[in-house]
Amino acid sequence: MSSVSPIQIPSRLPLLLTHEGVLLPGSTMRTSVDSARNLQLVRNRLLKGTSLQSTILGVIPNTPDPASDAQDLPPLHRIGTAALAVQVVGSNWPKPHYTLLITGLCRFQIVQVLKEKPYPIAEVEQLDRLEEFPSTCKMREELGELSEQFYKYAVQILDAVSLEERFKMTIPLLVRQIEGLKLLQKTRKPKQDDDKRVIAIRPIRRITHISGTLEDEDEDEDNDDIVMLEKKIQTSSMPEQAHKVCVKEIKRLKKMPQSMPEYALTRNYLELMVELPWNKSTTDRLDIRAARILLDNDHYAMEKLKKRVLEYLAVRQLKNNLKGPILCFVGPPGVGKTSVGRSVAKTLGREFHRIALGGVCDQSDIRGHRRTYVGSMPGRIINGLKTVGVNNPVFLLDEVDKLGKSLQGDPAAALLEVLDPEQNHNFTDHYLNVAFDLSQVLFIATANTTATIPAALLDRMEIIQVPGYTQEEKIEIAHRHLIPKQLEQHGLTPQQIQIPQVTTLDIITRYTREAGVRSLDRKLGAICRAVAVKVAEGQHKDAKLDRSDVTEREGCREHILEDEKPESISDTTDLALPPEMPILIDFHALKDILGPPMYEMEVSQRLSQPGVAIGLAWTPLGGEIMFVEASRMDGEGQLTLTGQLGDVMKESAHLAISWLRSNAKKYQLTNAFGSFDLLDNTDIHLHFPAGAVTKDGPSAGVTIVTCLASLFSGRLVRSDVAMTGEITLRGLVLPVGGIKDKVLAAHRAGLKQVIIPRRNEKDLEGIPGNVRQDLSFVTASCLDEVLNAAFDGGFTVKTRPGLLNSKL
């Protein structure tokens, strides 16, 4: 029999401190290297070394001590194993670390630690030689497996040098393990599942080297969870295709070790599949009368929107399998687009889920991530269905006009499948990878403007305009909804505060200028906070008066009247007695609380000289009035435009000056030198105030013409007239959009007459009746008619027929 060559290890070895197990001679193990000392050892010794000697390490079992300083070398076990580094794998995630594959060669004893930093190096003495016991290699491998389970026993085995001592320590352990397995087989009963007999054998108890807790209970729980998961899959009502996928995945899960990363991913996927509402739905409440009452109670005005919801209910009552419509509410902020979506769900008796799309720039937010990626998850649509637990909820896709676009894809393109009634019955999320039926979901999108919505997506939605409110509507909304809500939030009662409708009108006209009611709500909240201070201070002083037995105090009534001297409602110097309730909020109290009015009617002052006209503009925040100012000076015939204007508005200005120059003789317009060539030695400057706000669009064309006509004729434009309309080079007036919002803006500004294109006359039907009564409308088809209506007494020399001046 040939002899085995002895293994001679170096007398000096770098020490690798490991707490993941005990390495025995002849066994192999993987260990993670992430401490500073071990990282230095791998980098300086293994990665830079080229000889075989540089790959031999001294492996010392080490139990980390939380109380010890990480900078100091911990106490070392006196016996270790010399090992050969077979493989080194590095990674930077989640932090820099290496994984070593090491094989035990022989044992050694530490004689002296020679160096501690950057990694420990010790003088060692070899304890055994492999040629002494050539037949014990298999035993070493078995002991290596045992060392993973019994840390403290493995250390004792490591310390045992002679073969006899090692046998004496290992045989009792093996006998105990055999007895444990026999007892487990007697006490464990087989489980019956779908006529298949599955005997679950309890795994070997593993005692960890840190906590010493048993892990077999967790494994039992996992096995029970898998059985329950399989039962849920069998009893679920998912489609056949989804059921096949789940059965396939559960089979893979049973064969998969729990330590694999894919185990958790597969289990999460199956749990999502059984939680999705494949066939679970709510029953719609189809009482149209009750729905009408509920919508009227929750929202004032919005007649067009309510009408569309009632139409859906009526058709749904006649046809049970009606596909859910895809509606898009478009209007300025604060008009109730989001809240009306919640009311629609309440009316139908459906679950409601809101998905905020503002700023979303990844198509995976809609379609989900593929399961091949780490941290993958379903998209917001599938996740929302899981949250509500039914397949026919009301989904509100909020701010659909503010979707972004990036290298991760276009979420607006991903929504095409979701919002297409012909496709969404077969919607496939990347995470699920099976089809889900979205045809019963009622999708409601909200947007401030349709300009930023892609045309293909816009084509799939039914647009319902939600314009701003009139002053009368705001007053009703304030007293029906906003004031009661603010009183409840601030702990006040109607017996403590009164806000008359006249005061509400002052807040609307002088402190807010908006299409919605958000600013109005904030102002009402400020009033309630100020009154809450008065009430709280009054209660405190009332308590002090009770303690001092003061029983009669009269003549100190605190009531804010307009004819009295205004006093700050926050001034507490005169509060000798609690205020008399209720506290009345009038104009003086409003000024004390909210400060001076933010908006004053400045229209007449602005139009006190020629060269100024009032236009109407549409913005995503609603309609606005817009002043256009013009001046002329000696120069070289240049036209200057200021006010953050877009290209379309600049072109409208050039169109206006060209039309006036070509019709200067007709209207007897001359420059400062008496020439009909308006730009002869003359420069013109057009300015649109609020210069920090970007402006664009063709609707300012008629306003620019009127402003320039006023400048060159020296006549004043009527101060109560606003106008809108696109112009052509031949003097025609073309239709524009946003008529209702623009008319409401003119009404808020206190104007009396509005000039609009004749082809927009149909849009006046949507104007509330009280607004039509307060305003006079002029519909014009050419610029002659516009100028005739904009100036007192008319403007043209030859009046053309067709001017329509009617009070609707």
Automatic annotation (TrEMBL):
Domain of life per record: Eukaryota
Subcellular location(s) per record: Peroxisome matrix
E.C. numbers: 3.4.21.-
InterPro entries: AAA+_ATPase, ATPase_AAA_core, Lon_bac/euk-typ, Lon_lid, Lon_proteolytic, Lon_Prtase, Lon_prtase_N, Lon_prtase_N_sf
Residue interval(s) of motif Microbody targeting signal: 806-808
Enzyme class: hydrolase
UniProt xrefs under PROSITE patterns: LON_N, LON_PROTEOLYTIC, LON_SER
TM segment ranges: none
Lon proteolytic domain span: 607-793
GO biological process: protein import into peroxisome matrix; protein processing; protein quality control for misfolded or incompletely synthesized proteins
Subunit structure: Interacts with PEX5. Interacts with TYSND1. May interact with enzymes involved in beta-oxidation of fatty acids, including ACOX1/AOX.
Its job: ATP-dependent serine protease that mediates the selective degradation of misfolded and unassembled polypeptides in the peroxisomal matrix. Necessary for type 2 peroxisome targeting signal (PTS2)-containing protein processing and facilitates peroxisome matrix protein import. May indirectly regulate peroxisomal fatty acid beta-oxidation through degradation of the self-processed forms of TYSND1.
PANTHER family: ATP DEPENDENT LON PROTEASE FAMILY MEMBER
Family (UniProt): Belongs to the peptidase S16 family.
Descriptive protein name: Lon protease homolog 2, peroxisomal
This protein's encoding gene: LONP2
